[in-house]
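Hello, quick one for you while I still have it in my head. No rush at all, and the record is pasted right below.
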Amino acid sequence: MNEYAIFMDIDGTLVDDHQHITPKTKAAIQTLSKKGQHFFIATGRMLDAARAIAAQLGPNVGVIASNGAVIQTTSGVKCKHLGIEALTATYQAAAKNKISTFYFTPERVYYTDQLPDYFSADANHRVAGTNQPKYEQVSDLADLLTHETEIVNGIMISDDDPVGLANASAFLGTCPNLDISTSAPNNIELLPLGVTKATAIRAICQDLEIPMTHTMAFGDGENDLAMLKTVNIGVAMANAVPKVANSVRNHTDSNLNDGIATFLTHYFD
């Protein structure tokens, strides 16, 4: 059996609504891992939270966290940082449009405003995972910039102001040293320029000496699109947003119906 590098988004892809990997999906991944296949979480979550999901699968699962800004493999952890210019632009856009914004290090979350009323358990999972990260409010831009050597990515979230979110997105789309994407209609993902899940995948495959012809990925959101197009076999979940579903050739069942396990079993059978 040829060695493959296989990458899996978390929310809407690998886990169910309770943040668990189902027994069937877990068994399929663990069986193939024992046969020499290489599995990686590939998520927008911070590293500490992504590790908690990876731990459900075992010690040999690598992690791409913060949408590619953080890579954890057996050789250690590598990080890319947003930097002063991107932090300044995003903070100013958030303040002008009154949008709650979260900035991530591998293990901590800094936020610009009071934690919003909508910050439910599900929102918390999507921002930082099921384990309890350390949240710390920043008082102003100067305070935020004291953490610039720590912060690797961020996310702006607004459930009730799509116009403000669109205005912020339009402004940030013109900013140098910053890339933006979205994983849901209510957010803007903030990344260092040139950093995506796709760039992280290419770096990992180069280190492992696995050709891109032996790569596979599963996803459902727009922030998965670059990843799905970069690998040889990009697979959209049945619950994927239309832009993703219409952009790849391979499809599988939803995250609630063991879509990953179904595809893996058929492909490697």
In short: The chain has two domains: 5-79+195-268, 84-192. The first strand starts at residue 5 and ends at 8.
